[in-house]
């Protein structure tokens, strides 16, 4: 692969060496992957990141199979560069109905206090009920239908953003696809290795969206030796070149970033939400189980605060998610983005302005070069 560098500076040469394997695996100019963020990582943002030299990933966990097929085709129309697809494959699902209508009925019958909480929010903020219209919820049957689309489209890289990708590994390998597993602990990373994945994203608790409780630096440092020779991509709180340099010197072959691209012009979030992210500080983005029943880092707001004060236990997938998605649908239609689940990581505090994805990518690379020029030595790990 031709070097991405144009001169012989120490930092550029070091970066070329550090992420050479990552670039080779991804087939990209830069080993910078954009996290698949539900309702955000769609064709325009994904294509913009891939066209800028990174690796975009379409978030398809909430897409019906026919919509997923169309999103992949639409992305291919916008870029001839590599991109991937991410699905949600929860390792455990409650024995719930496989339709949203059925889950709502079970919520009313079995968890009336949770339903009452959601309705109290609608009343408090004077929102008109506006339930999510599609009748699909996370289920093994639904996930299998999505997997079939991904295999049929022969997407080069498949990622399981939540759950266990073991079920897809043999079939994906037959198609020549690269399979990525996401891990929040070293134990999870080791399980992914045993399942035969090709690449493991180790996301520290600083990351946005669904996340764990272990910090990025110790997680990556331990995982690169525990799961060798399977390569590691670092994630969680990485929003500038200094963070990328730190991840690479720990032994990661690339980075998996999301928050840095939430303020891209190509991102479909409303400008008011992007401005809120730019104005936020690291401490504003906190973990709560209010939104999906799983640990999820998002901008703290009055809704997550009300949940904490309610004292209610979170419900397993898909109950909590269906419950709160109906509230979020009402908030969105009312334009109440201050009530929305603005998932983002603690690195968001380093974002300064809205701008094109290509400009963000260029600054990430130049910032990494500068950091490596200032601190050129890498820790080497025994295999």
Secondary structure layout plus pairing:
Blueprint: H1 10-18, H2 20-26, E1 32-34, H3 43-51, E2 56-59, H4 65-78, E3 83-89, H5 100-110, H6 112-124, H7 140-153, E4 157-163, H8 169-174, E5 178-183, H9 186-195, E6 199-203, E7 209-210, H10 216-226, E8 232-235, H11 241-250, E9 254-257, H12 271-279, E10 285-288, E11 296-299, H13 302-310, H14 319-333, H15 357-374
Parallel strand pairs: 1-9, 2-3, 3-4, 4-5, 5-6, 6-8, 8-9
Antiparallel strand pairs: 7-11, 10-11
Helix pairs in contact: 1-15, 3-4, 4-7, 6-14, 11-15
Main sheet: strand order: 1-9-8-6-5-4-3-2
* Largest sheet geometry: 8 strands, parallel
At the third CATH level, what is the topology name of the domain at 10-93 and 139-269? TIM Barrel
The pLDDT mean sits at: 90
CATH homologous superfamily placement of the domain at 10-93 and 139-269: Aldolase class I
Q: Determine and state the CATH class of the domain at 10-93 and 139-269.
A: Alpha Beta
How many angstroms does the end-to-end distance come to? 25 Å
User: Helical segment tally?
Assistant: 15
Question: Structural class per helix/strand content?
Answer: alpha/beta
Count of strand segments: 11
User: Strand portion, in percent?
Assistant: 5-15%
Question: Helicity range of the residues?
Answer: 40-55%
Give the C-alpha Rg.
Answer: 20 Å
Principal-axes shape call: globular
Which stretches of 5+ consecutive residues score pLDDT under 50?
Answer: 1-8
Q: List the helices and strands in order.
A: HHEHEHEHHHEHEHEEHEHEHEEHHH
């Amino acid at each position: 692969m031709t070097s991405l560098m144009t001169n012989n500076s120490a930092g550029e040469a070091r970066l070329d060496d550090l992420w050479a394997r990552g670039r080779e695996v991804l087939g990209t100019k830069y080993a910078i992957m954009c996290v698949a963020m539900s309702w955000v990582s769609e064709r325009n943002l994904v294509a913009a990141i891939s066209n800028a030299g990174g690796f975009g990933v379409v978030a398809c966990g909430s897409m019906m199979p026919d919509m997923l097929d169309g999103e992949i085709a639409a992305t291919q129309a916008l870029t001839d560069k590599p991109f991937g697809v991410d699905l949600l494959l929860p390792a455990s699902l409650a024995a719930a109905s496989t339709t949203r209508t059925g889950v709502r009925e079970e919520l009313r019958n079995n968890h009336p206090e949770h339903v009452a909480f959601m309705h109290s929010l609608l009343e408090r903020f004077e929102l008109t009920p506006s339930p999510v219209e599609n009748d699909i919820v996370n289920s093994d049957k639904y996930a299998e239908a999505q997997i079939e689309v991904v295999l049929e489209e022969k997407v080069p890289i498949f990622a399981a953003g939540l759950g266990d990708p073991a079920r897809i590994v043999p079939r994906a390998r037959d198609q020549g696809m690269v399979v990525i597993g996401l891990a929040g602990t070293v134990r999870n990373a080791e399980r992914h290795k045993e399942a035969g994945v090709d690449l493991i994203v180790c996301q520290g608790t600083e990351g946005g969206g669904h996340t764990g409780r272990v910090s990025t630096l110790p997680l990556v440092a331990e995982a690169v030796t525990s799961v060798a020779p399977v390569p590691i991509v670092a994630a969680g709180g990485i929003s500038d070149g200094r963070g990328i340099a730190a991840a690479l010197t720990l032994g990661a072959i690339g980075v998996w970033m999301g928050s840095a691209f939430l303020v891209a012009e190509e991102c479909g979030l409303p400008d008011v939400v992007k401005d809120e992210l730019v104005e936020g500080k690291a401490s504003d983005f906190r973990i709560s189980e209010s939104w999906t029943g799983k640990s999820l880092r998002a901008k703290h707001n009055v809704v997550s605060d009300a949940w904490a004060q309610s004292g209610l236990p979170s419900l397993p997938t898909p109950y909590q998610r269906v419950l709160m998605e109906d509230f979020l649908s009402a908030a969105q239609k009312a334009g109440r983005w201050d009530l929305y689940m603005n998932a983002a990581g603690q690195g968001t505090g380093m974002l300064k302005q809205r701008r094109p994805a290509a400009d963000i990518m260029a600054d990430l690379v130049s910032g990494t070069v500068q950091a490596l020029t200032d601190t050129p030595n890498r820790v080497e790990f025994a295999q």
